[in-house]
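assembly run, all chains below
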Amino acid sequence: MAGRKRTSTAPEAAPAGPDPAERSIEPAVAIETRELRKQFGRVVALADLTMTVRRGEVFGFLGPNGAGKTTAVKLLLGLAKPTAGGGTVLGASLGDVRARTRIGYLPELFRYQGWMTAREVLALHCELAGLPRSSWAKEIDEALALVGLVERADTKVQGFSKGMQQRLGLGVALLGEPELVVLDEPTSALDPVGRQEVREIIGSLRARGSTVFLNSHLLTEVERVCDRVAIIDRGRVLTELSVAELLRENGVRIRVSGLAAPVRIAGRFGRARLDGEWLAVDAVEDARVPALVAELVEAGGAVHAVVPRRDSLEDRFLSLLGADPGSSSAVDR
Amino acid sequence: MISARSVGIIARLTLAEAVRRRLLWALVGLTLLIVALTWWGFSRITEASPITGPMEMLAVSQILVMLAFMFSFVLAMTAVFAASPAIGPEIESGLLLAVLARPIRRGEVLLGRWLGLAVILVAYALVAGYLELGAVWLATGYLPSDPLWAPPYLAAESLMLLTLALTLSTRIVSVAGGAIAVVGYGLVWMAGILGGAGEALNNDMLRWAGTIARLILPSDVLWRGVAWALTPSPDVLESTVANPALYQFSPFSGSQLSPGWLAWCLVWVAGTLAIGAWLLRRREL
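ok done. output:
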C-alpha cells in the first residue's frame, strides 16, 4: 500500500524468506487440528476438522458462505470453544492466552474504537499485545505505511470508510511481526487496488517467514497468494491441496480436422480425448505444445485453433461442491 | 489468574472513552449547575424561614435528602446507561473481537470495564456530594449527623447498579439489561419502604420481603445509609418526630449501615462480577 516501508515480493513469487525451520526452534507446524467440531445446538457449524498448516506457508481456507470458515478461525483463536476435538496453534493448546502474543488477527467483522484515531488504535493493540513501549512508535509508523494510512493516522476512526477500517485492521494484525497472521476475509471491503496491495502484503509476510492463515471465498485471490488450500463445505473439509500442483495440471484444446485418430497421436503428450470437434489434452507441459501441434500437422491434420486450458482453483472448487460453474453464486472471483 | 496490567489497560481505555465522548464533562456541567441551584434555593429558603430550631433543621435535612435521592437516581441511571452497552453490544458489533484475540482474558476485560466506570462514578459522587453538602452548609449553616459518609454511600450505591448492569450486559442485549437493572433498582427501593413499614408495624412478612430484596440487590441498604448520614442527630430527630418507628415509612428515611450489610455489599459485588466473568467466559463470540 502507499508509502510502504517494508520490502514486499510479488504475490506470485515462490517463498523467498528464511527457512521457517531456521527462523524458529519451534515445531514446523503452525496449526494442527484433530477432529475439531463445533455445534450450536443441533446445527453443526464445523464437523471434525483435521488439518495441518506448516510454519511459513500461506494457507488458504476456502469455502462458500456459511461453510464454517469463521467458526474454525474463532476456535483456533480461542474465541469459541470446540464441542469436541482439539488442536494446537504455535505449539500451544487451542485457547491458550499466551500463544496470542504471537498471533495477529483481522476479524471478518472488523470494527475499531470510533472515538480513537488510527494511531491510537494501533497503540492500544501494541499495549494489548505486550510489545515493549520503546518499539511502539516504530511499529505504528510501519503498520500505517504498510496499509497506506499515513495521511489519516490522526483522523478518528469513526470518519473512516469500511475499506479504510479494514486497512486499519490489517495494520493491527501485523503489529509486532506475529509468527501467525490470521486474516478472515481481509479484502471484503477493499477495491481491486486494495486487494492487490493486500496480496503484496501477504507476499511480504511469507518472505519474512510468517505463517498466514487466509480465510476467504475469493478464489482468484487465494489462488494467487496461497501455497496450499483446504476447501470446506457445510463444516467439512472436502480436500486439501497444493496450489502449485493444481496449476501444473495444464492442458490444451486443439480444434483439428482431417485426422482419423488424433487421440492416438496426442496420447503420447498427455491424457487426450475428443470433445466434439475439439481435441482436449490434459497434463501436457507448455513447452511440448508446439511439438504436439507439429505432429498433428505432419500426420495430415488441419489445425484451426489452439487454446491453452488451466484447471483453476475455481474449477476444482466447483467440482468438489458439485455446482454448475455457470450458476454458482456462492463464490466470488 | 487475573493480570492487573490487562485490567488497567481496559480501565484506562474506558476512562479515556468517557472523557472523549464527553460523558465526564456532561456530569461535571450537571453537577456545577445543580450545586449552584442548591446554594441559591437554600439561601432563599433560609431567608424566608431562618433555622432557629430542630423543626427547621429537620425540614432542611429532608430537602437535602430529597436532593441526594435525585443524585442517587442520576448516578444509578448513569451507571446503568454506561454499563449496559459495555460488553454485549461491543461483542456483537465486533469491537471486542480484535481485543479478545490478544493475550487478555475475558474476566480481565469485564473487570477493566468495571474499574474504569467505577472510577468515573465514584469521582462524580464524591465531588458532587461534597460540593452539594458544602453549598447547603454555606447557605443554611446546616451540617447533617455524618456528612463525610453520605457521598461514599452514594458512590457505593451506584457501584451496585454498575455491577448489575455490567453483568447483565455479558449476556443480555443492552436495552433489556438496562431495563432490568433500572426496574430492579426501583423495586428494591420500594421493598426498602415496605421493610421499613414492617419494622414500624412489627410485621415479619413485610420485614422479610424488604430484607430479601436488599439481599438480592443491596442498593437500597446504601441509599438508607445516605439518608441516615444526611439527617440531623438522633436527639433532634427524636425531639421532632412523634413516632420514630413510623418515620421509617418515609422513602427518605435512613438507617445506619451495619458492618454486616457493608460486608454483604462487598461480597455481592465480588460475587456478581464473578458470575459476570463466568457468563462472559462461556459466551460464544
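DSSP finds 13 helices and no strands in chain B.

Residues 97 and 237 of chain B are 56 Å apart (CA to CA).

not gonna interpret more than that til we talk
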